[in-house]
Each structure stands twice: as structure tokens, then as C-alpha cells.
Design a protein that fits this description.
The chain is mostly helical. The chain has a single domain, classed as Globin-like (Orthogonal Bundle), CATH 1.10.490.10. 61% of the residues lie in helices and 0% in strands. It is built from 8 helices and no strands. The radius of gyration is 23 Å and the shape is globular. Keywords: Heme, Iron, Metal-binding, Oxygen transport, Transport.
């Protein structure tokens, strides 16, 4: 009798007798909002890897801005609080740059964590895009200048966790965020909208 019980337990561990319904792995992942350019699996991977970034927000943000200014020194004049810091060393040690980097990273954090509720995501990111209308001399194409520095900073923070798949997901995500910022910026400048 003990042998029969052992055989039954072993067969259940091997999956026999599990034919009563579909296996959990056979079920498709829940559908994502069609406005989101990520699959459910990509969104899950994005949110999981973002946890590594959120533990190093300031470092990642400073790295992002240093790379931005290395590639686009002409943009440094846009930042009143730290435009006088011309060298990489001065920028790394600037509390003003660190504060701005934190603000930008917190905005990205809110956006990425908001991918589960796209109505709120769009409202929030559109508002952030619109707020750039108040920056003297800001041009809409400047939004795109942060894309490569963002990806480089994420790669530096994640290290070997920045696989080709994760890189692709971050490229899709930052493009989506930047396009949404631009929509907010442009809608705020449309006739009839107050800036």
C-alpha cells in the first residue's frame, strides 16, 4: 500500500495526472494596452530591470547628463543652475546637477512605473512635456538628445544585466516616453492652449 502512495506522489511530481486543465506556462500572458509598444513579457522585463536603476537613480542620472553634455556641449547653456560647470569633474561634483538629474530620473521612474495605467502615464508625461515650453530657448528636438545618454547610463548601471534583449526593451521604452513628451510639448503650443 505504501508503494502505491509513493508511485502516485512520484507521478504527480512528473506531471502525470495534471491533464485536468492547461498548464500555467501554456496560458498566454495578459494582454497589454494596445497603445503600449511593449508586449506583456517585455513590460515585465522592463519593470524588473528598472528596479536595478531605481536603486541607483542619482548615479544613473548624473552619468546620463555627463554623457549628454559630452555629446551636446551646446545644451549646457540651457541649465541655469549648473551651466558654469564645464569639466566632467565639476559636473560630477555639482549638487545642482545631481538635483536636476534626480528630478529627471524621478520623472522617468514615474513614467516607467505608470506603464500599467496608460491614461495616467499619458497625462503625466504630456504635462512634463508641456512644462518644457516655459524653458527659454528650448526646442522640441532637444528631447531626442537624451536618448543615447539615457541608454548609455542604463547600460553602465545595469552592467552585465544589460543584455541585448534588455537593451531592445529600453530602446522601445525611451522612444515611447520621448514621443509622449513631444506630444505634450506640441499640444501645449497648439493654438488655444495656454503655456
Amino acid at each position: 500500500m505504501g508503494c502505491q502512495l509513493g508511485k502516485l506522489a512520484a507521478s504527480e511530481r512528473r506531471g502525470a495526472g495534471a491533464c485536468t486543465g492547461p498548464a500555467l506556462t501554456d496560458a498566454p500572458p495578459p494582454a497589454t494596452d494596445p497603445r503600449l509598444p511593449l508586449t506583456a513579457k517585455q513590460k515585465y522585463s522592463m519593470l524588473a530591470s528598472w528596479k536595478g536603476i531605481s536603486r541607483a537613480m542619482e548615479k544613473t542620472g548624473i552619468c546620463m547628463f555627463i554623457k549628454l553634455f559630452e555629446e551636446n556641449q551646446d545644451l549646457l547653456h540651457m541649465f541655469e543652475k549648473f551651466r558654469q560647470y564645464r569639466t566632467k569633474e565639476e559636473q560630477i561634483n555639482s549638487t545642482e546637477l545631481a538635483e536636476h538629474a534626480n528630478n529627471v530620473m524621478n520623472t522617468l521612474d514615474e513614467g516607467i512605473k505608470g506603464l500599467d495605467d496608460l491614461d495616467n502615464f499619458f497625462a503625466y508625461i504630456h504635462q512634463v512635456g508641456a512644462s518644457h515650453r516655459r524653458i527659454p530657448g528650448f526646442k522640441v528636438e532637444y528631447f531626442w538628445k537624451i536618448e543615447a545618454p539615457f541608454l548609455a547610463a542604463v547600460e553602465a548601471t545595469l552592467g552585465d544585466r544589460y543584455t541585448p534583449n534588455v537593451e531592445n526593451i529600453y530602446k522601445i521604452t525611451i522612444k515611447f516616453i520621448l514621443e509622449t513628451l513631444i506630444e505634450g510639448y506640441e499640444k501645449a503650443g497648439a493654438p488655444g492652449n495656454a503655456t
